Amino acid sequence: MGAVIAADYLVVGAGASGMAFVDALITHANVHVVMVDRRHGPGGHWLDAYPFVRLHQASDFYGVASTLLGEGRLQDSGPEAGLHERATAPEICAYYQRVLQRMVGSGRVEFHSGCEYLGGRAFVSRVSGRRFEVTETARLVITDYLGPDIPATTPPPFGIGAGARVIPVNDLVKVTEAPSRYVIVGSGKTATDACIWLLSKDVDPDAICWVRSREPWMINRAALQPEPEVFYRSAGDIMAAAVVATSPDDLFLRLEAAGVMLRIDRSVTPTMAKTPTIGVWEVDKLRTIEDVVRLGHLEHVDPGRLQFAAGDFRIPADSLVVHCAASGLKYAPVVPIWQPQAITLQPVRAGFPCFGAAITGYVEATRDDDAEKNRLCLPSPLPDTPASWARMQVMGGRASTAFALESDIRAWASRTTLNPARIPPEKADDPGVRAAAARFRAAVGPGLERMAQLAGMVDVAGPAAA
Ligand SMILES: Cc1cc2nc3c(=O)[nH]c(=O)nc-3n(C[C@H](O)[C@H](O)[C@H](O)COP(=O)(O)OP(=O)(O)OC[C@H]3O[C@@H](n4cnc5c(N)ncnc54)[C@H](O)[C@@H]3O)c2cc1C
């Protein structure tokens, strides 16, 4: 047996979810928390991020409820001038470091970095080998149930033959000699970031071959800003489109027409809807890459050859293959957040994982009964396809209704910028905001009812809050 630590909570993971949960918990309850992470500091996957990554959404939506990430300012130059700032990975890591210092300084939190949780409330330092146990009284909090897989820490999902040149996306910045072809493997945000970065370095679009096993739908960043009028206009567009949509694909095509969704190739109907946000300027650049390989999942790389189940694809022998194909989001089944063995963090509204973790921390701090907490915080899944995106909207809408009926939670949610649906008091009487919110409220009931049908859900959703 190792050293025994007395605590009220044992939180496994100090990524965005763990940090948002603990911040809200200790702000509203006098408790002692032990946080454990195998990484060397707080910030989770951001500590291993590729150097040119930024948040894909505005910084306001990310982080912990007590502390704004960034300064809430608009970008004043570049292709996104006028849109809200988006933090880089170093900015995010520095932010979490500051938040952690404050937590530890409060005396309510102790953080054990470089430690592996072993189960049974025990963990071991990966550096010293020292073992710790946390008292049975501590409630276990699992924060990485849906934590993303990233290329830096996940091997490529394809075989690599002798002599083939394959790097994770993180190593793109270390290239010292230009290959005649960059082969980008992946369809999601990481792959789009890699392509944009190469193009920004004056790599000829024809020197990029892009293996996209699926075509992605992405949200127009300009349509998802921390501005209530913008948010409610888009939310209203989504519900209005849903009411008349004939299928999940038709819903997305209508959202494209409304300027909410974007796709790279207008001649292909996307099947993937993880829906990160993207700038119109980025999509314009991505469209200059014409060598797109749509042969399904890459199975094996040899010098000069990509192998797919559907056949081989020739590439120059010196091609540099860039692994951007980690699965990113996880699709574990939705489970009750509060169970006897653990609190399992998941989104509590459609998307916005930091908000979900923070509201869970608030509810944990302010309620005693687990059944009541589960009634107030309904988990919602992450999206993968147009149909599962509709399902996320329905379940997220129900979750929003459940917590919004409680006045203290509504008041708490209206104070944090992590909540995309909040209307700050100074904007409450703005005519544009009022009109957009009213339009949304009129459409949300029928919109979600139709989305439940489109998603193939057996029961039909009732009206919901934003
Ligand atoms: C490139 C990228 C960009 C993104 N941009 C955005 C964005 O703009 N907006 C947005 O809302 N979302 C964004 N997301 C999604 C969002 O960041 C993630 O869902 C969220 O940050 C994940 O945080 P997490 O705490 O759930 O997981 P993680 O960051 O993976 O943290 C979990 C932590 O738990 C630790 N851990 C797990 N098991 C153990 C164990 N047994 N012992 C010890 N430690 C353990 C891990 O070391 C890890 O540090 C992005 C994701 C990626 C990959």
Describe this structure in words.
By secondary structure, the protein is α/β, with parallel strands linked by helices. The chain folds into 2 domains: 3-149 and 330-401, FAD/NAD(P)-binding domain, CATH 3.50.50; 151-216 and 275-323, FAD/NAD(P)-binding domain (3-Layer(bba) Sandwich), CATH 3.50.50. 32% of the residues lie in helices and 18% in strands. The chain contains 11 helices and 22 strands. The strands form 5 sheets. It has a 6-stranded mixed sheet. A 5-stranded parallel sheet has the order 10-20-11-12-16, covered by helices on one side. A 4-stranded mixed sheet has the order 1-7-6-5, with no helix packed on it. The longest helix has 24 residues, at 431-454. The protein is globular, with a radius of gyration of 23 Å. Flavin-adenine dinucleotide binds at residues 12-13, 15-18, 36-39, 44-45, 49, 53, 55-57, 61-62, 116-117, 143-144, 146-148, 150, 189-190, 328, 352-354. Flavin-adenine dinucleotide (FAD) binds at residues 12-13, 15-18, 36-39, 44-45, 49, 53, 55-57, 61-62, 116-117, 143-144, 146-148, 150, 189-190, 328, 352-354.
